[in-house]
Amino acid sequence: MTREHRDADVAFIEALAELLRAKDLTELEVLREYGDNDSLNVRVSRQTAAPAPVAVAAPVAAPAAAPSPAPAPAAAPAASDVEDPAQLPGAVVSPMVGTVYMAPEPGAPNFVGVGDQITEGQTILIIEAMKTMNQIPAPKAGTVKRILVENGAPVEFGAPLMIIE
Length: 165
Fold this sequence. Notes:
alpha+beta; 10 strands; lipid metabolism; Biotin_BS; AcCoA_biotinCC; lipid biosynthesis; acetyl-CoA carboxylase activity
């Protein structure tokens, strides 16, 4: 890669980041092809505060049920349930934005399940980011108490993945 090529790529990425901010987007992915076996695949995303997705999800239900006051109290406990897992001491959070895979390949058994005893450093799942499979290790030994994500689901940076106690 030439210096000119690298400098142009940096400028391109900075322009994408500015576009992301200006248009109030949360994620943008672009594949830039230069020629034979030479391309740049860029995914730019920005982190939103954890309560924001919950606040977005709650009003979707609330306007539909706005005439009756009963659904609003029901939505509030659901929001606190969603926030609680990340606050638990055994919470394992996503180190990146990507797609979660619970098994090493389709049809294979999951890396871990609820109730499994695991060791520190053991692979608990994979997060695919920009066509790269990233093995996520257990931060500590313990028992898997809850799995908070589904296979194939997108995750944001800092999102709780599972609880290990």
